[in-house]
Amino acid sequence: MGCFECCIKCLGGVPYASLVATILCFSGVALFCGCGHVALTGTLTILENHFSKVTTDHAMLTDVIQLMQYVIYGIASFFFLYGIILLAEGFYTTSAVKELHSEFKTTICGRCISGMFVFLTYILGVAWLGVFGFSAVPVFLFYNMWSTCNAINTPTVNVTDIDSICVDVRQYGIIPWNATPGRACGSTLGDICKTSDFYLSYHLYIVACAGAGATVIALLIYMMATTYNFAVLKFKSREDCCTKF
């Protein structure tokens, strides 16, 4: 076998679907975790400086944000390992499906592992759908605040008293009702929207939401690839049983 034929054979064993899904998964998780971590810090800074100046009023929120940041560390570590494992499993099952190497044979243990990955990837896909929906919530809240600021800054707005335009974050349940001041109105609200913390956090939440969506797509590709390989391996195992008799 020449060098060219050997390269073609090796390229035939590359699980392109799993490779694309791995790259997309790493990119999506990196965007979600990195941008989400910084955006949470910026959100806490905005609340402390403008909406809840008494530390005890948002002590629970501070603990929740810190907990979420630790969870982000765990998510990043887990999906880094899980993506590598799924890519390795893709290389093995693709070679077994295409029978490129005689030493790659299907076994009961191998099929059980493939089935486990199908089930686990499905569960993770459903979980990330929830994460994607949850990550859209801060985008919605910041968008409402941003659109309110635009209403203040628009010269054609028909409002006699700009100070009557307010954003009260207490109504979202982020901080308790006894937090002071709890809301921002008029020019104060406009100044908040012009801060770097607001601008950065708003756009980082959008990127984090997009990263969560990319991760959902990656897990969907993983599910299709692993399900196909598992089905083919199971079918081949039945063929092998039939040929023995």
UniProtKB/TrEMBL annotation:
Entry keyword annotation includes rRNA-binding: no
The protein's name: Glycoprotein M6B
BP-aspect Gene Ontology terms: axon development; central nervous system myelination
Presence of keyword Membrane: yes
InterPro entries: Myelin_PLP, Myelin_PLP_CS
Pfam families: Myelin_PLP (PF01275)
Species per Swiss-Prot/TrEMBL record: Oryzias melastigma (Marine medaka)
The organism's place on the tree of life at top rank: Eukaryota
Localization per Swiss-Prot or TrEMBL: Membrane
